[in-house]
Specification:
The complex is a heterodimer of chains A (308) and B (292). Chain A is an all-alpha fold and 308 residues long. Chain A has helices at residues 6-15, 17-58, 61-66, 81-113, 116-131, 134-152, 162-185, 189-197, 202-231, 234-239, 257-266, 274-303. In chain A, helix 5 (116-131) crosses helix 7. The radius of gyration of chain A is 26 Å and the shape is flat. In chain B, 75% of the residues lie in helices and 0% in strands. With 292 residues, chain B is an all-alpha fold. Chain B has helices at residues 6-49, 55-59, 72-103, 108-120, 125-139, 146-170, 174-182, 187-215, 219-224, 244-252, 257-288. The longest helix of chain B is centred in the first third of the chain and has 44 residues, at 6-49. Chain B is flat. Classes of the chains: A mainly alpha (308), B mainly alpha (292). At the A-B interface, helix 1, helix 2, helix 4, helix 5 and helix 6 of A face helix 1, helix 3, helix 4, helix 5 and helix 6 of B.
């Protein structure tokens, strides 16, 4: 019978040729896979930058950022991004008015008032709400919310900013609620108990102790929510219409940056036309907006984090 | 002797306690908004679509006449789409998560990769559509095929799966790892036989949730130019196809009222698929997740 001791077995395992090869190859293979995420970013930047550059050789940059009219489909087109940005801002404004109080309120309830049992019922409901496809939300906006709003305010037209704005707001509520709740839950229990022990009510504790301590996480959640609202596409494509304009009217048809991209690509934009390249200039603007918001959220979280 | 004057207490605290109760109710109402919307959405959709949810609807192709239009091509197309998206996304994301958690040195490059992934997660889906249109559809000449759309969606959901997998891998305690190394296992033996099996329930939950996001995603498909009226199902991944959310989007834009009922019926199917996928994810999370 051959005599094996543990030390030899371990040595054999480590000296085995194929084991040695695998140990060397695996990190390299995994690194190559990981680099795909970098390549994706490079791909996005390359795509947007190269086509946007061609766009600006045809349409002056100054016109793009200062003109207030966007008539991409007319025979004599004008490309003033302000009209589309205005549309996006209207949607963002309404959705923020809906999502911030509702999301924060829900987060406070879940983190400070709700019992474990209630939390176990409500959190999955919020998760389901977060998982509903945006095309479904868009259908809900046009078939349910819009008629409801038009009944209440007869002056509102079929396509308007209010209905998609409210629905986009509802869509980002779960995101704000769950991120804010995470921030509040990480405030240590002892801080709360200190406040309660001094005779503050629960609400006073929330207002003066928990919210200030969790402020960085909560504000970051608002910023991320706004970033989602800026990039939201299907709800506005279905319910907001396709009339870009740099006005402040919330009751008439409008177009957002995302809505324009969908409108152009659902028809066939002939390759090489101004219209085709304008797609990328709008995409670039949209990308910059959301990137700035995401970086801001990361910066807020890092900069104002309370350490316990 | 009375130490606490009850009247005094209720006089000075009464208002504050009432306000506290009032705010509690207000916060509860905020929480209920989500529930109310969810119920309204589902009831409204089911009322509109239930009668149109027939066998013919499930087995017919799309059509310009609402009475004969169906969703067969869209369902088959979406299955094809997931068959490309799922394996690509899984290999990319799990590989990335393993590298970042197990092999990556702590340096600036690794840090950059992590920040980059969290930024990719925030890029709007319509921008991923532009990436797919330019790189996959045009430069790689894949056309509006299952392959082009599948690769685009895979890149889009990759950050979600990476983060979920990283959390699952991180949850495997160090002691298990040390025990394996102590027994003489090499790095890859530890990773492949100890860590991955322990983390797999968490990873699979993340994958299913990400795929359920991909199956309902519409904007990138519109940008890529996925057709809405097609009377064949794809035979290979290089054929063009229809997709469920695209079909719904196409119907909701139709002026005829009849199509609105088809939209609702299509949404019921889509929500059922999502519900099924989520149930599987929750089941796996509860059944197989190990506690150390």
């Amino acid at each position: 019978m051959s005599e094996y001791n543990i030390r030899e077995m371990i040595q054999n395992n480590k000296n085995n040729k194929s084991t040695k090869f695998v140990e060397k190859a695996v990190p390299t293979i995994l690194f190559i896979i990981t680099s795909v995420s970098i390549l994706t970013t490079i791909g996005i930047l390359y795509t947007l930058l190269s086509e946007t550059f061609i766009f600006f050789t045809r349409v002056p940059f100054i016109e793009f950022i200062t003109a207030t009219e966007w008539n991409a489909f007319s025979a004599d087109p004008t490309f003033g991004i302000i009209a589309l940005v205005m549309g996006t801002l209207k949607i963002v404004l309404i959705s923020t008015i809906v999502a911030v109080p509702v999301g924060l309120g829900a987060a406070v309830y879940l983190s400070e008032y709700a019992s474990d049992r209630v939390r176990r019922i409500i959190k999955p409901i919020l998760e389901i709400l977060a998982g509903i496809p945006t095309v479904v939300y868009g259908t809900f906006a046009i078939t349910f919310v819009t008629p409801l709003i038009r009944e209440m305010f007869p002056g509102v037209s079929l396509y308007n900013a209010i209905s998609p704005g409210v629905v986009v707001g509802i869509m980002i509520v779960p995101m704000i609620a769950s991120l804010s709740e995470d921030a509040m839950s990480s405030v240590p229990r002892s801080t709360r108990e200190g406040s309660l022990g001094l005779g503050a009510t629960r609400f006073e504790t929330v207002l003066k102790v928990v919210l200030p301590a969790a402020a960085s996480g909560i504000i970051a959640s608002f910023v991320l929510g706004i970033s989602r609202a800026i990039g939201e596409t299907m709800i506005v494509s279905i319910a907001a219409g396709s009339t870009p304009g740099a006005d402040f009217d919330l009751s008439t048809s409008l177009q957002t940056m995302t809505g324009f991209i969908v409108q152009v690509t659902s028809g066939d934009a002939a390759f090489g036309t101004d219209l085709y390249y304008s797609l990328y200039a709008v995409g670039m603007t949209l990308f910059i907006f959301t990137l700035v918001m995401n970086l801001a959220a990361q910066w807020i979280t890092r900069r104002f984090k309370e350490e316990y | 002797m009375q130490l606490v004057d009850k009247d005094q207490v209720s006089k000075s605290l009464g208002g504050r306690l009432f306000f506290n109760k009032f705010m509690k109710v207000l916060f509860l109402l905020c929480t209920m908004v989500g529930l109310v919307v969810l119920v309204t959405l589902i009831v409204d959709t089911v009322l509109d679509g239930w009668d149109h949810l027939t066998w013919d609807f499930l087995t017919s192709f799309s059509s310009s006449r609402p009475e004969s239009a169906g969703i067969y091509g869209a369902i088959i197309g979406s299955i094809w789409l997931m068959a490309v998206t799922a394996p690509v996304a899984i290999i990319l994301s799990v590989g990335t998560a393993l590298y970042l958690e197990e092999y990556a040195p702590k340096n600036k490059i690794t840090n950059f990769i992590t920040v980059n992934i969290s930024n990719l997660a925030g890029v709007p889906s319509v921008v991923f559509g532009l990436l797919g249109l330019t790189i996959f559809v045009r430069q790689l000449s894949l056309g509006n095929s299952v392959m082009a759309a599948g690769l685009t969606l895979a890149l889009m959901i990759m950050p979600v799966i990476v983060v979920a997998s990283q959390e699952a891998i991180r949850a495997v305690p160090g002691s298990v790892r040390e025990a394996s190394t102590g027994m003489g296992a090499t790095k890859w033996q530890t990773v492949s036989r100890i860590i991955l099996p322990a983390a797999i329930p968490g990873i699979i939950t993340g994958i299913i949730l990400a795929l359920s996001r991909a199956i309902g995603e519409t904007a990138p498909l519109v940008v890529i130019g996925v057709p809405v009226s097609l009377l064949v199902t794809p035979n290979s991944v290089f054929d063009t196809f229809q997709a469920l959310p695209m079909q719904i989007y196409n119907w909701v834009k139709m002026p005829q009222e009849e199509f609105q009922y088809l939209t609702a019926a299509g949404i019921i199917i889509l929500l059922l698929i999502l519900f099924l996928m989520n149930s599987v994810a929750i089941f796996i999370r509860n059944k197989y997740s190990k506690r150390f």
